[in-house]
Amino acid sequence: AQTVTQSQPEMSVQEAETVTLSCTYDTSESDYYLFWYKQPPSRQMILVIRQEAYKQQNATENRFSVNFQKAAKSFSLKISDSQLGDAAMYFCAYRSRIRNTPLVFGKGTRLSVIA
Amino acid sequence: KAGVTQTPRYLIKTRGQQVTLSCSPISGHRSVSWYQQTPGQGLQFLFEYFSETQRNKGNFPGRFSGRQFSNSRSEMNVSTLELGDSALYLCASSLAHSGAGADTQYFGPGTRLTVL
User: Fold this and answer.
1) Which of A17, A104, B13, B91 is the most exposed place for a label (fewest CB within 10 A)?
2) Rounded to whole angstroms, how far apart are CA atoms A110 and A108?
């Protein structure tokens, strides 16, 4: 079974600085998707970024980018120019592209942004 | 497009009662998945429905059930509520064509269930 590990339960960053959240996963599959979701205090789970495993190019969405290392099974999220609104729980998630399987989530990293 | 909607947003029930939660997916999305989120267990998959058929099921007791209607709206039901069922229940929808693999899931705001 696939597993997703987020080794940093909590992190903090100064406003306007850059922070990187770590995620590793374990799978025997070669074709899959990886996601980062953000869950602010409102509890709404918001998609931040998605990466397709067959694409070597790292995904970017405005201030959010990932460092996808397929061989190392690593998928970190970099947030540049951090803003107060970035404060939230961040979840890394995996889903097989081949089989109908649900999202597998990590335990999450709570990010605080300091003004 | 409107996002995923869930009703009600908050529920308070007592042990032994049953509850029904509702989820309306994004227009055009045919797959609906349900997740339970608790501080201790994190996010756990309950079940997925596609075209009114349960396509996948997580490791939850039979007290947890669901269904999907022809308009893709979904309901989940929990019977004989236990204190441990207190959680945030999240619904997610995706395009997910039949037989296809992963597709991006978009989440609703959740229903906060408290069992007293």
Assistant:
1) A17
2) 7
Of A37, A96, A105, the CB nearest to B42: A105
Q: CB count, 10 Å around CB of A74?
A: 15
> Are A103 and B104 an interchain contact pair (Cβ–Cβ within 8 Å)?
no
**DSSP assignment string, B33-50:** EEEEEETTTEEEEEEEEE
User: Cβ neighbours of residue B1 under 8 Å, at least 6 residues apart?
Assistant: B26, B27, B28
Under an 8 A CB cutoff, do B104 and A47 touch? yes
Q: Which of B115, B110, B80 is nearest to B7 (CA)?
A: B110
Give the DSSP H or E segment for B22: strand B19-24
